[in-house]
Structure formats: C-alpha cells, structure tokens
Amino acid sequence: HDQIYGKYCTIEEYIDCPPDAVYDYLADPYNLAEWTYSMRDFGEMDETGLVPSLDKIGGDTWIYTRTTANPIARTVDYHCSWDQKDHLWMIYLMRVIDAQVVFNKPGSVVLWTNCKHPFYEQNPFEETAPQDRGVWVGDLWPFFYAGHHVEMQNLKAILEHCHAHGLPINPRSIAGVAA
After folding, report:
1. What does the pLDDT look like over 48-70, one tens digit per residue?
2. Helix, strand, coil percent values for the chain (each to nearest 5)
3. How far apart are CA 49 and CA 65, in angstroms?
4. Could you give the C-alpha distances from 101 to 83, 104, 137, 138, in angstroms and in order?
5. Pseudo-torsion of CA 12, 13, 14, 19, nearest 10°?
6. In terms of DSSP bridges, do strands 61-70 and 39-40 run parallel, antiparallel, or are they unpaired?
7. C-alpha span between 92 and 114 (Å, rounded)
8. CA angle in degrees (0–180, nearest 5) for 147-159-81
9. What is the distance, to the nearest Å, from the Cα of residue 146 to the centroid of all Cα atoms in its chain?
10. What is the Cα gyration radius of the chain?
11. Residue 142 — φ and ψ, nearest 5°?
C-alpha cells in the first residue's frame, strides 16, 4: 500500500451535475452526513465555523470539522480532527472542475486528495481519546482509497439523482441556511 499510495490518497470522479451545484453541496458541512461513510449526528456550528459530529468508525468518536471553501476556485477543504478541536490536522482537499472545460461535456469532475500527516502514525492527543476506543484513525490509512472511493460513489449517486430528477441539490442552501 505504501509503495502504491505513499503519503497521498487521491481519487477523482466525473459527476453529471453542474459544477456550481456540486460546489454548493460540498461547501455545506452538514451534507457530509449524507454521503460519507461514518460522519453522523452533527451539532451546531460555532462562531468559528467548527462543527462537531460523531465518527462512527471510532465508535462514538467526536470529530470536529471546519470547512474552508472558495467559490471562485470551487475548492472545498475540510479541516478535521478526532477527539479535540484545537488542532485540525486531518485535511480533506476537494476541487470541483467544470467538465465542459476538461471533457467537453456538461457536468463536473471532482478531485479529492488526503495527505498522510505524521499524526496518522500516532495520536498526539491520547489524553482526549475515549479509553475504550480500539482504533486510531491512522490505523485506517491503508483503507483510505477504498473508503473514499465508496464515499465518492455515494456523492456521485446523490448528486446525479437530484440533478436528473430536478430535485434540490442542497436543500439547506435553498432554505438560506447553508454554511
């Protein structure tokens, strides 16, 4: 795995949905509950944009997320960490590209990269971890590609279904409550 993927995990996918709609959906951190494998039970966003939720992979592990989004570049970066909210070191980098530009057809290309931060090797915040949790997020690095592939297929299916059937892509945005 290390020889193939090394310190990066990058996946990509074509999604038959307009790029601005894909960007808008990704920029709302509450939508992570819909397409990710394990992020659930989102709490209220604080004044800094930090949102707590539970990562079910770690049992009931708190994960904290702050979204940094740029609508002009259509980049959405999720800055996250397990157990503590003071040092967000798990960074999920996403970019939405207009497929018309790169494939000469409508839709979007989504690029997603994770970098293997040194903290994946060992939890530097062990004092904040639940005593009974048997897994550390870094233990899962060998499965990031497979897991993110499943999540990207979820994202694709949700967005293509909504777009094809004229459904709202991001209902929270339409209601005026997007982050």
Report:
1. 999 999 999 878 899 999 999 99
2. 35, 30, 35
3. 8
4. 41, 6, 36, 36
5. -70
6. unpaired
7. 5
8. 40
9. 14
10. 16
11. -60, -15
Model confidence over 119-144: pLDDT tens digits?
999 999 999 999 889 899 999 999 99
Tokens of 149: 């592939």
Match 């982050």 to its residue by tokens: 179
Q: One-letter amino acid identity for 81?
A: S
- Retrieve residue 156's tokens: 């694709």
pLDDT top residue among 6 and 83: 83
Length of the chain: 179
75-82, strands of its sheet edge to edge: 8-15, 108-115, 90-98, 75-82, 61-70, 50-55, 39-40
Q: Which two tokens stand for residue 43?
A: 């709490």
**DSSP line for 91-140:** EEEEEEEEHHHHHSSSSEEEEEEEE--GGGTS-TTGGGS-TT----GGGG
